Amino acid sequence: MEEHADQHTDELPADLDVTGMVGPYVFPDNSRRRIPGYTYLALAAATIVATLAAGDSAMVNGGLIVGAIGLALVGAYHLQGGWRLEVDEADALVAAIKAVGFPVGHASAQMAWRGLRSRPTWRILVYSNESPPESRGFVFVDGIDATVVACHTEARPDDDTGDWEPDPTTGSAV
Length: 174
Known about the structure:
single chain
């Protein structure tokens, strides 16, 4: 199939496109969920008002009220899930370092959401600063108040050969 230059293609919104980014990346705030939440609530209210004003007819009936109630429930869910992200990845890393109890070398942060209310939570994977790392940890840090939700640390697992030197070409254990 041949593509044309004038054909529309999908693209990321500007605030999520990292190809043209200069400077530190700022994770998008979950509070953006409130915009569709208010939109759904306004649409539900308008549907209820229009249905009540039109009365009972073949085109407008009580089924629209049921649909509007469903839309209002979806809107309310969006509003309650629109948490403002107060903790950035640097603050989450500090909380994770305090929780694991060893000096950290390499680390990685990922945003996740937990629970029915979609509370933002940082998942931080940390390795101790030895070469090769002697310990590793996985820490969940709340994105609202920086409390440690869960923390698991362990010593480096020994392999069968006892040799854990990484292969310089692949980075995996030899």
